[in-house]
């Protein structure tokens, strides 16, 4: 894809995936990779930042003799996701208008 992924858009994608279900980092990376090329080394700092900002919480579950860290969206994360969705809709509509050749404001 030719378009760059900003930090806010990546956060929005992470929060949207976690709104559906709790999951662990590897699965999050794979789900995001289905639409955007991203490495685990890019994702984990985002997860830590969202956790520090109380948008995510974590818990561990045993899996094949080891613990797997799961991420879960918090009420604060749900609020942020809603803001991201509103911002995305506004941004997308403006870009669609420009790309389709429309004009938002005409000079007279």
Automatic annotation (TrEMBL):
Pinpoint the Transcription regulator PadR N-terminal domain residues: 14-82
The protein, known as? PadR family transcriptional regulator
- One short Pfam name that applies is PadR
**Which domain of life does this protein belong to?**
Bacteria
InterPro entries recorded: Metal_resp_DNA-bind_regulator, Tscrpt_reg_PadR_N, WH-like_DNA-bd_sf, WH_DNA-bd_sf
